[in-house]
Amino acid sequence: MKKKITLVLAVALIVLTSCMLLIGCTPSKPSDYMLKWNDSKNKSITIISYLDYVQVETSEGVFEKKEGKTTKELSYTKSGDTYMLKAVEITNIKKDGKDATTDTITPTGAIIYELKDGKYNIYKYELVWGKESETSDKIIKKGQWTALQDTKENVEADEDEIGMFKYIKNMIDNQEKLNKEMAETFDANYTKEGGKYVANDKEKGTLTLKVKSGELVCELIDGEGKVAGCSRFDLNDKITITSGAKDALNKYLNPKK
Fold first, then answer.
1. What's the pLDDT score for residue 9?
2. Residue 224's pLDDT is what?
3. DSSP string covering the chain, please?
4. Which of 35, 67, 68, 193 has the lowest CB atom count within 10 Å?
5. Closest CA to 185 of 172, 169, 197
6. Alpha-carbon gap, residue 73 to 75, rounded angstroms
C-alpha cells in the first residue's frame, strides 16, 4: 500500500513540475516575452481590426451590408523555413436588434511558402463560388486550395507567381527589430497597472500590454474606452500543411494523374 501511495505521489510531483516548467517558459513581462518571441522558431503576429457592420457576399460579386460586427484577423507566421499569411473573418449578424448567440468564424484566405529540398512549395487558399457538389447545381462559396512550386532564388527575389514572400518575411523581421527596441526602453515607457502594462504616452490613446493564455496581447483603447485596435503575439505557433493543400501540390506536380 505504501509503495502504491509513493508511486501516486511521485507521478503527481512529475505532473506538477512539468506544469511549472511550462508556465515558466512563457514570460509574464511583455518585454521579456518580446525577446523570447524573437528567438522562437515558431511564432506569429496577428493584427486585429474591428468593423461595426457585416458585409455579406450573397452571390458572386453581390454584397449586402447587415447590422452586426466584424473582427478581421491577419496573421503572419514563421515556422522554421516556412512562412504563412492567413486571413480570418469573425462575424456576428444581429437579428431583431440582438447579437447572435455564436460568432461565425471564416478563414478567408492564406498563402504558405514551404522551403523543401531547395525549392519552395507555395500553397494558396481562397474562397470561390462554385457548385456545392458534382451532382448539385446549387452555387455556394467555399474554400479551395491551389499550389505550385518555384525555385528558392525566384521566391526570395519575390519573382514567383504570387509574389508575397518578401512581404510576409519583412513583417516578421521588422517586428523582431521593433521588439528589441521596445524591450530596451520598456521600463521607462510603460507602467504596470492592475495586471497590465500601460504606455505612459497617451497622445494617441491608451496602449496596454498583457501576457494572457500564452500570448502577448496589445490593445489600443480609444477615448471612449473601446478597443480601437489590437495585435496578438504567439511564440509557439507551428504551421501545419493541411491535406487539401498537399493534394493541390500533388495535382500540380502530377497533372496527368
1. 38
2. 84
3. -HHHHHHHHHHHHHHHHHHHHHHHTS-SSHHHHHHHHHH-SEEEEEEEEEEEEEEEEEETTEEEEEEEEEEEEEEEEEETTEEEEEEEEEEEE-BTTB--SS-EEEEEEEEEEEEETTEEEEEEEEEEEEESSTT---EEEEEEEEEEEEEHHHHHTT-SSS--HHHHHHHHHHHHHHHHHHHHTHHHHEEEETTEEEES--TT-EEEEEEETTEEEEEEE-TTS-EEEEEEEESS------HHHHHHHHHHH-TT-
4. 193
5. 197
6. 6
Q: Quick: pLDDT tens for 125-147.
A: 999 998 888 888 889 899 999 99
pLDDT digits (tens, 9 = 90+) for 153-168: 999 999 999 999 999 9
pTM over cut 0.85: yes
Cell of 20: 511549472
Please provide residue 233's backbone torsions phi and psi, each rounded to the nearest 5 degrees. -110, 140
> What integer pLDDT is reported at residue 201 of this predicted model?
87
* Residues sharing a CB contact under 8 Å with residue 166, sequence separation 6 or more, in sequence order: 156, 158
Q: What is the average per-residue pLDDT within 104-130?
A: 96
Strands 139-151 and 119-131: antiparallel
Question: Which grid cell sits at 215?
Answer: 500570448
Distances from the Cα of 138 to the Cαs of 125, 129, 130, 134, 142, in angstroms? Answer: 22, 10, 8, 10, 12
Quote the cell numbers at residue 218: 496589445
Quote the pLDDT of residue 57: 93
What contacts 88, CB < 8 A, 6 or more positions away? 72, 73, 75, 105, 106, 107, 108
Residue in 210, 165, 174 with CA at minimum distance from that of residue 38: 174
Statement: residue 90 has pLDDT above 60: yes
